[in-house]
């Protein structure tokens, strides 16, 4: 193969690759927002964005009762935390999640923990194991099983833990912050940026949230249906 032919073939491959990528982008943009994907989400749907209202959901709590987001209609807001039993990051943040609830629940912003893990993949995340974990740690908030992963997909949660701070705005829960809890999963003493704490503190003071999104730090959620 001479040099000119080689150059022509390489150019043709580049053009074909470019056209293929354009087609993929066009298909992605033609999808509804809920079916597009985030860069770090694998096949997870894009989910809610800051400023969007969240649809009501209803899941089973570890005490056997059913809990709905609408049950919190008298609250100023909710910190929805997607977490689980098996993930080391979720375990590292566990005490900090409890501390957030202890600090803000009485001020109108309780924690609502949701486990999106498929128990067939992670034995530690069966409902019985969830009950054991909640009991041993003394969770002061509901710990809900989302084993069908419908709520996590609707939110666009990608990792555990992944936090969505919601503000009750005229009976609608509107997303104010999405992301990680703080900037140091390994060492609570080394934290310099407390994203969730700062977001809720500002909301309680009727101030805008300064940092509205951060990249979630944790274990990727393994999706079973999409």
TrEMBL record:
GO terms for molecular function: antioxidant activity; oxidoreductase activity. Residues 48-201 form the Thioredoxin domain. SUPFAM superfamilies: Thioredoxin-like. This is Peroxiredoxin. PROSITE patterns: THIOREDOXIN_2 (PS51352). It comes from Rhabdobacter roseus. The lineage of its organism: Bacteria, Pseudomonadati, Bacteroidota, Cytophagia, Cytophagales. InterPro entries: AhpC/TSA, PRX-like1, Thioredoxin-like_sf, Thioredoxin_domain. It holds the Pfam family AhpC-TSA. It comes from the Bacteria. Gene3D superfamilies: Glutaredoxin.
């Amino acid at each position: 193969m001479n040099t000119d032919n080689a150059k022509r073939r390489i150019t043709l491959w580049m053009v074909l690759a470019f056209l293929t990528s354009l087609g993929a982008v066009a298909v992605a943009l033609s999808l509804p927002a809920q079916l597009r994907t985030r860069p770090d989400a694998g096949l997870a749907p894009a989910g809610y964005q800051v400023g969007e209202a969240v649809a009501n959901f209803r899941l089973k709590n570890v005490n056997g009762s059913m809990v709905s987001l609408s049950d919190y209609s008298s609250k100023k807001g909710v910190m929805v935390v997607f977490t689980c039993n098996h993930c080391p990051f979720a375990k590292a943040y566990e005490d900090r999640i409890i501390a957030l609830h202890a600090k803000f629940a009485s001020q109108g912003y309780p924690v609502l923990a949701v486990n999106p893990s498929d128990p067939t993949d992670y034995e530690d995340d069966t409902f019985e194991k969830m009950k054991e974990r909640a009991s041993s740690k003394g969770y002061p908030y509901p710990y809900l099983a989302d084993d069908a992963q419908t709520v996590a997909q609707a939110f666009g949660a990608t990792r555990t833990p992944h936090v969505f701070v919601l503000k009750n705005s005229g009976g609608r829960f509107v997303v104010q912050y999405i992301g990680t809890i703080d900037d140091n999963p390994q060492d609570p003493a080394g934290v310099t940026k407390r994203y969730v704490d700062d977001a809720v503190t500002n909301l309680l003071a009727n101030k805008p949230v300064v940092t509205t999104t951060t990249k979630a730090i944790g274990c990727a959620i393994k999706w079973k249906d999409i």
